Structure formats: structure tokens, C-alpha cells
Amino acid sequence: MAKTPQTDLTDRRTVLASVGAPFGVRGWVWLNSYTDDLERLLHHSPYQCGERTLELAEVERRSRRLCGRFAGVEDRDAAADLRGCELSVALSDLPELPAGEYYWTQLEGCRVINDEDDVLGEIIALQNAGAEDMMCVQDASSGRQFLLPFALDRVVREVDLEARTVRVHWPRDWI
Predict the structure, then answer these.
(1) What separation in angstroms does the CA of 39 have from each of 14, 131, 169?
(2) How far is the first Cα of the chain from the last one, in angstroms, to the nearest whole number?
(3) Residue 77 phi, psi dihedral angles, 5° rounding
(4) Is the distance from CB of 37 to CB of 56 less than 8 angstroms?
(5) For residue range 84-108, what is the model confidence (pLDDT) as tens digits?
(6) CA distance linking residue 8 with residue 162, whole number of Å
(7) What pLDDT was estimated at residue 2?
(8) Given this model, what pLDDT does residue 11 score?
(9) Pairing mode of beta strands 119-128, 111-114
(10) What is the β-pairing status of strands 133-138 and 119-128?
């Protein structure tokens, strides 16, 4: 069954990164960024990790990755305890995007409706598949999940965040 549409997204959180394996013995960890620009991670500290607040004390770029140390995390054991932690911020703390761009968190929970006004399902997740982003949609009637490209103009015709809908050019018999 589809969730009730949420029009107020100000209290929602979005995960920007996760903590990877420890790096060295002084509390450093690898940071697995989910943003398209690693530098964006540096501007959103402090982060929430469950009930815990984590503040980045130091960050270094290592090749195409970031490693960092959080305030109060001084050794490898304390760093290892953070492994797998998802670093989130309030959606309202992120910069406003230009028209036609969306944070994935904004799209999760939106109903997907095709040109024939068939409700295809609800977006439960988004992922980057290399060439383009994909919406993971769950059919409300069958519970079956399927992927649709999040290709503006070609597949996605309209995004209405207020109505919590994404209109697509995608016949039901294609899913």
C-alpha cells in the first residue's frame, strides 16, 4: 500500500556518505561519499549518525576518495566502531537546487504516474547506474519492484514535489 503523500519535507534527512574502514591508527576513516562532488561533503558537518552527532575534525583527499577524522575519535578502535555509520543532514540544511534538479530524498515516496494516468507505483529508492540515474519503483498492487530511468524529458515528463508525483512516459506493459 502506498504511503500517504508528504508535503512537508523540512524534517526529512538525507544520507550524504557512510563511514568506511579505519585508515591508520589515529582515528582516521575512509568516507564513502554519495554526492556527485566530494567537496560537498566538507561543507555539511556536523552529521547525524543515528542518535550521535559527528563533527569532521580533519579531511584529506586521497586519489578519488576522502578520508577523515571526527572530533573525539582518536584511535583505530574508536574509528572502527563508526564503520558502516550513515552520515545524514537535514534536507532543509542543503542548498536549494536550480529548477529541474532534485535531491533523491525529495523523490523517494513519490507516486509514479504514466501518460495514461496509470499509477505504476511508488519510488522507494534511486541509484546511479553509470549512464543515468534509475528510480526503483514498487508496484502498489503486486509489491513487485522495477527500475525506470530518471531521464528528464525522455522518460520523466514532470516532477511535482508538492503533489508528490512523478509523471513518466512509460506504458504499463513495459514493466
Answers:
(1) 17, 22, 35
(2) 18
(3) -65, -45
(4) no
(5) 999 998 888 888 888 888 888 899 9
(6) 8
(7) 30
(8) 65
(9) antiparallel
(10) antiparallel
